[in-house]
Amino acid sequence: LILAAHGEAAALLGERADAPDARLRNLAQAVQALLPAAEVQIARVNDADSVRAALEGATQAFVAPLLFSDGYFYERLDAAGRAAGVEVAPPLGLWPEFAAELARSIEAIAPEGPRSRVLLVAHGSRRPGRSAACARRLGEALARRGLEVGCAFLEEAPFADAAVDDMTPPF
Fold first, then answer.
1. Which is the most buried residue in 17, 152, 154, 159, by most CB within 10 A?
2. pLDDT band at 12; cut points 50, 70, 90
């Protein structure tokens, strides 16, 4: 089992260089504990060498992309998986179970319960496309469960910083 996540520049997070990988490694260890018969590895999809290393020699691997969309990084991961003869699942954000579980989690912690307003912040892209479309689709799935959902993005309009500034309680 290969858990594939985007990966981040630690400097953006104000953390040590290995901190983002540490979180992903901790997740892999937790999954390994739940699936002791499986070999659990990690791959960072924004690092082609990391993906190559995880796929190298993997003849019976299953890749679980911890991504919200099937955009650019998913396409690269899927192509690498196909080239290695390895199955790549759809991105986590597109699994129907993900939207339902996320809604349940929001309802459990939100002050207004299922009537809470939610701002779903996704990466987006300077080249609008699948990233934003998938986030909007997730937002629509949450809205069907009764949540009031808005979407904002880091790299395209509507931008997250402006959306957060415009929020009024309760959220």
1. 152
2. very low
At which residue do the structure tokens 């987006």 appear?
Answer: 124
pLDDT at 36 over 80: yes
Give the number of other Cβ atoms within 10 Å of residue 132's Cβ. Answer: 22
Say how many C-beta atoms besides its own lie within 10 A of residue 111's C-beta. 9
Write a three-state SS string for 18-84.
Answer: CHHHHHHHHHHHHHHHHCCCCCCEEEECCCHHHHHHHHCCCCCCEEEECCCCCCHHHHHHHHHHHHH
Residue 148: per-residue pLDDT: 87
Specify the amino acid at residue 68. Answer: F
Rounded-to-integer distance, Cα 99 and Cα 5, Å: 18
For residue 36, with 0-12 CB atoms within 10 Å meaning exposed, 13-18 middle and 19 or more buried, which class applies? exposed
137, two tokens? 């689709």
Instruction: Select from 28, 39, 33 the least CA-distant residue to 66.
Output: 28
User: 3-state DSSP call for residue 14?
Assistant: coil
Mean pLDDT to the nearest integer, 111-119: 73
CA 165 to each of CA 18, 95, 156: distance values in angstroms, whole numbers, following the listed order: 31, 31, 16
Average pLDDT, the chain: 86
